[in-house]
């Protein structure tokens, strides 16, 4: 794998695609800068070699053209503070003025370009737009794993203009960890799949049936499986048009010898509310007027046992509505079990927006092997798809 370690950047301008899509308050305060701190090692490597850095990113989802609330200019002072080097900014990512600034960029400094998505050509993957972006640098580095599943101008197409291109440290780590799981996992390999909807996770479950030994299913999606098995689910989350698919997955798991674990019991509520009345219900036996919002005690125990015996763990999606304290137990207990298994030597990768958020919320970030920064990108990777951002560098 070609990474920034494969190059000496002395006297070179590195054009780096980063993911600076950080959350901002109405007053443009950055509430979580982890996407910025995550790429500091790559920036530092270029600068310490004696090179200069041009950064390009998107921020939010601007509709058409520039909008102040999505301007990357709001990040300039924080970026300067984090990197401790001079940062200049261009309010247009492909203007002649911006290109001149990159051409004259002093060694040891950073040029941040305005939001790429102010041009519709970015998401369209426009080749002429990508070629203009390419003029900003001598070497292209992709360090934006979060957008690696998009064939956008700056994430994939731009790479065609470069002979010299590589992964940044963050992206290299993400790719190496994800590949480790899919290519040669130490067994037993257990995948935990949770979250709200089956429809979002069908492809990943189908692909995991080819590699995992155990698949644990939790969260709202478990109820569509429960219906597929003939159960009553009351008012729990349910996708009628996916019942058949769930039946198919259950049969396929059996055929392939993959153990698919569904929760034996659930914590149910009479309203989608932290203060609702609660009761425990066996799976497949939830009365009308009640909905399952977390896995139950029996399920926690069974899932924990499977995890304790696992050598490789992939976790995507929470076990319940962990945002509300009444329904956080299942997700917390699974985080604990993953942490325990990791301490005993298992390799654990947590990824996909909400499970990463849960691991962070319950303080387990340091107790798992790796927390991925990629939501959609990680999902697509485990769905077995080729990610354009990876292919573009490896080509
Ligand atoms: P996803 O983005 O698909 O991983 O789904 C995450 C969301 O699923 C979280 O916001 C959870 O609150 C929600 N969720 C998990 N379990 C349930 C459930 N049993 N009923 C409704 N929502 C759930």
Question: Which properties best describe this structure?
Answer:
6-stranded parallel beta sheet; about 15% strand; alpha/beta; binds adenosine monophosphate; Rossmann fold; about 400 residues; 2 domains; 15 helices
What does this structure look like?
This protein is α/β, with parallel strands linked by helices and 395 residues long. The protein has two domains: 4-171, Phosphoglycerate kinase, N-terminal domain (Rossmann fold); 185-382, Phosphoglycerate kinase, N-terminal domain (Rossmann fold). The chain has 15 helices and 17 strands. The strands form four sheets. A six-stranded parallel β-sheet has the order 3-4-2-1-5-6, sandwiched between helices. It has a six-stranded parallel β-sheet with strand order 10-8-7-15-16-17, sandwiched between helices. Strand 16 (347-350), helix 13 and strand 17 (370-371) form a beta-alpha-beta unit. The radius of gyration is 23 Å and the shape is elongated. The mean pLDDT is 96. The chain binds adenosine monophosphate (AMP). Adenosine monophosphate binds at residues 195-197, 200, 219-220, 237, 292-293, 317-318, 320-321, 323, 352, 354.
Fold-level CATH name of the largest domain: Rossmann fold
Low-confidence stretches: none
Q: How many domains is the backbone divided into?
A: 2
Widest β-sheet, arrangement of strands: 3-4-2-1-5-6
CATH superfamily of the largest domain: Phosphoglycerate kinase, N-terminal domain
Helix percentage: 25-40%
Ligands bound, unique: adenosine monophosphate
CATH level-1 class of the largest domain: Alpha Beta
Shape: elongated
* Separation, N- and C-terminal Cα atoms: 11 Å
* Secondary structure: number of strands: 17
* Range of strand content: 15-25%
Largest sheet, in brief, is: 6 strands, parallel
Mean pLDDT: 96
Number of helices: 15
